[in-house]
Inverse folding.
């Protein structure tokens, strides 16, 4: 069932220059949600004062869980959406729909950041933009890397691989090619294009799951596809910090107001990689007020 929400107001017809050169590069923020954007005020602060010429916003909202009216930078940013559900390929479809919309909408969209409704920024917009477009991070073929978690040593890898039934993935995906990782990522335009053009692996990963306890297609498809097509072009690390201590039914730890402090923000930024985390999840809606109280002094103060 298609949503009745409007597409971004300036969405043009499809262009042929989907892999556009770097010109006034923008970051496309892709919000994937099935509930209200509780942290919209914090993101509004994040997007101010940078000019809109540096970013675009796209929102895929489950039409079965309609959003209240959106204001400010989020106004008129809903894209046509379909229902999403765990243990199914619908979350892959939603992410692909967001990527395709952003690719077609603006050729200046150079990075594509998939964001959860439970996600908050850990740095200022200017810090993130400077980090992503640091020319020293260009690969030898003058391309920017993607930041997506790609793991091949996860303890339940075999169960996840067989979630659709034994022998359901070959010959397109053999077990030694199967990867897992975080659902949320920051993709360079080259890799976003690979995702929306892919048909071969998509036919496999959209198969219904038999073992739903091991079925997290959105955590499998993107790492596997990009690992198979361009492993050296991806960092293998995500920019979104998630606390998997005390996991409940496949969900990460959810932070609540008593845990919110400047020390928490500084700790969430820390990474084992050469760069820090830029986003974090998962936060309960009632964290908004304590987060807003330290937005300028801590979160957006680099």
């Amino acid at each position: 069932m298609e949503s009745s929400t409007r597409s971004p107001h300036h969405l043009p017809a499809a262009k042929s220059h989907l892999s556009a050169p770097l010109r006034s590069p923008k970051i496309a923020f892709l919000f994937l949600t099935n509930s209200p954007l509780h942290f919209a005020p914090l993101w509004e602060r994040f997007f101010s004062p940078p000019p809109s010429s540096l970013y675009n916003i796209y929102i895929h909202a489950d039409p079965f869980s309609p959003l209240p009216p959106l204001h400010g930078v989020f106004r008129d940013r809903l894209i046509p959406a379909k229902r999403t559900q765990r243990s199914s390929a619908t979350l892959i479809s939603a992410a692909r729909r967001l990527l395709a919309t952003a690719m077609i909408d603006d050729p200046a969209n150079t990075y594509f950041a998939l964001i959860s409704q439970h996600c908050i920024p850990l740095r200022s917009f200017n810090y993130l933009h400077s980090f992503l477009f640091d020319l020293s991070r260009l690969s030898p073929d003058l391309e920017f890397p993607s930041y997506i978690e790609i793991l091949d040593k996860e303890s339940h890898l075999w169960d996840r691989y067989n979630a659709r039934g034994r022998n359901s993935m070959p010959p397109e995906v053999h077990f030694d090619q199967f990867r897992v990782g975080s659902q949320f990522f920051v993709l360079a335009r080259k890799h976003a294009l690979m995702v929306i053009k892919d048909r071969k692996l998509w036919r496999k990963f959209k198969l219904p799951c038999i073992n739903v306890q091991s079925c997290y297609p959105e955590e499998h498809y993107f790492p596997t596809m990009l690992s198979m097509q361009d492993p050296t072009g991806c960092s293998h690390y995500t920019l979104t910090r998630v606390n998997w201590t005390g996991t409940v039914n496949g969900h990460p730890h959810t932070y609540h107001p008593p845990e919110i402090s400047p020390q928490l923000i500084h700790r969430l930024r820390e990474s084992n990689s050469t760069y820090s985390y830029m986003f974090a999840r998962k936060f309960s809606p009632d964290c908004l007020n304590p987060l807003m109280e330290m937005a300028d002094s801590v979160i957006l103060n680099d």
In short: The longest strand covers residues 26-33. Residues 1-21 have pLDDT under 50 and may be disordered. The beta strands are 26-33, 55-61, 109-116, 120-121, 146-149, 186-188, 234-236, 240-242, 279-281. The first helix runs from residue 40 to 46.
